[in-house]
Design goal:
16 strands, 474 residues, four-stranded antiparallel β-sheet, Alkaline Phosphatase, subunit A
């Protein structure tokens, strides 16, 4: 080969690699705004994490995430059941309307574009996607109708018919159940698959294939760890051995609460296996962000929609977990029903810390995210941005928040209709059908065992008046 031909060959190779390098840079360019990944668990109690004190459930990946995050230890759901809690989180609004809390009242189609957080994120070039439990309606109330660019396995289903493939086929003790099927999921599934794994696969695929020049906002709402309680056999057996070897001491298995019982031990091997499987999948998600080199440019929020299932009513049932030392659980306005894990991470932007004083709720999540990525505030909503808490410029230890539950389930979870207010350290619960009032100092009495209403009548009257004034607005 002549010198000239050699020169042209080398030059061509150089141009080829230069073009490849340019394309590589173009394909990995960081978007101007951070990505957002929201991981939302179903029915996961505050104490179902090993970092929050569980000695049975091992959650190393969530624990690691929490250690790298701003963690809010006074965080609440806005309702102790799924649909109203999710409505509040998605809209930044209290779910209470006209003293009713039936699912039909949560009409997402009435949310204007100006107050729709997802549409506001779309306007600033976010790719928005929703995966998993939606449970907020069909037709005009689907994730896509609400504004998400993409949705997967998100329909009317509030829980799976089965966590084990085929997911929409009743089996075992669940043979007679009639539930809405989970859409999309079986198209990517096969014999032997587990639902939580497959949902995670779908999110990982989405993140890998997303346009890297634009930020994404993906919300993964696991169906785990809601009933039915089903897990992989090897995980169940491992946890059963650990539970059998654990000394619960004199802790009773159940205590009486309302029309039924409160579970006092975390001794359900299948539920333990479900929690740990979810933790493993969260580890896979975090590893994906690392592999793509986008961890530092991704805001990660972890939360749960309300407390764990620890109570039954006149119908005895298979109870999943214990929220002890919190009182009661799902369905109740005691702490076990509404206190939730909530954390936010953004490497190099937010310094990890435990925020133990400020009162925050799930309806603050999207106002915070919109504030972070656009500095935009939406007026006339109930939630508010907790960015000042992250930055340490404010404390919300005297904040006042409210709850109203008029769809009690004394047969299933044992509670009766109630409203509640927390203002600073004080919490009042009003079981209004019985006109029974209880007052607690939550800072001193997290287990809500010492009712101070008769000792502090003025404080009781003040809080009850505030609660009734809030209810009367609707």
């Amino acid at each position: 080969m002549s010198y000239k031909l050699k020169f042209l060959a080398i030059l061509s190779i150089g141009i080829f690699f230069a073009q490849c390098k340019t394309k590589s840079i173009e394909n990995t360019v960081k978007p101007e705004k951070p990505n957002i990944l929201i991981i939302h668990a179903d029915d996961l109690g505050y104490h179902d994490l090993s970092i929050n004190g569980s000695q049975i459930y091992q959650t190393p990946n969530i624990d690691k995430l929490e250690n790298q995050s701003v963690v809010f230890n006074n965080a609440y759901s806005n309702y102790p059941r799924c649909v109203p809690s999710r409505f509040s989180m998605m809209t930044g609004l209290y779910a209470y309307e006209n003293n009713e809390t039936s699912n039909q009242n949560y009409n997402l189609s009435t949310i204007s574009e100006e107050k729709n957080f997802i549409k506001q994120l779309n306007k600033i070039n976010y790719q928005t996607a929703y995966f998993g439990k939606w449970h907020l309606g069909r037709g005009q109330q689907t994730p896509k109708r609400f504004g998400y660019n993409y949705s997967f396995a998100a329909g009317l289903a509030g829980s799976p018919i089965s966590f084990i493939y085929p997911f929409n086929t009743p089996k075992g003790k669940n043979k007679r159940v009639t539930k809405s099927p989970i859409v999309d999921i079986e198209e990517i599934s096969k014999e032997g698959d587990y639902l939580t794994d497959n949902l995670t696969d779908a999110v990982i695929k989405y993140i890998n294939e997303a346009d890297k020049s634009k930020p994404f906002m993906a919300m993964l709402s696991y169906y785990a760890v809601h009933q039915p309680l089903e897990a992989k056999e090897a995980d169940i057996q491992r946890n059963q051995q650990e539970i059998d070897a654990f000394d619960f001491g004199d802790q009773p298995e159940y205590i009486k609460e309302g029309t039924g019982r409160t579970k006092m031990r975390q001794d359900h091997a299948t539920y333990a296996a479900m929690v740990e499987n979810m933790d493993e999948n969260i580890g896979r998600l975090l590893a994906t962000l690392d592999q793509l080199g986008i961890t530092d440019n991704t805001i990660i929020i972890f939360s749960s929609d309300h407390g764990g299932l620890s109570n039954d009513g006149t119908n005895k049932r298979d109870l999943a977990t214990s929220n002890y030392p919190l009182r009661a659980g799902k369905g109740w306005l005691y702490e076990g029903g509404i206190k939730v894990p909530l954390s936010i991470k953004w490497n190099e932007k937010f310094s990890p810390k435990q925020e133990n004083e400020s009162i925050v709720t799930l309806m603050d999540v999207f106002p915070t995210l919109l504030d972070i990525v656009s500095s935009k505030k939406i007026n006339d909503i109930d939630g508010k941005s907790f960015l000042p808490l992250i930055n340490g410029t404010e404390k919300w230890n005297d904040r006042t928040v409210f709850w109203h539950s008029s769809s009690a389930r004394p047969m299933n979870t044992g509670e009766t209709n109630a409203s509640a207010i927390r203002s600073g350290d004080w919490k009042l619960v009003h079981f209004y059908d019985e006109n029974k009032i209880e007052l607690y100092n939550i800072k001193k009495d997290i287990s809500e065992q010492t009712d101070l209403s008769s000792e502090l009548p003025q404080k009781t009257t003040t809080l009850l008046d505030q609660l009734n004034s809030w209810k009367n607005k609707y």
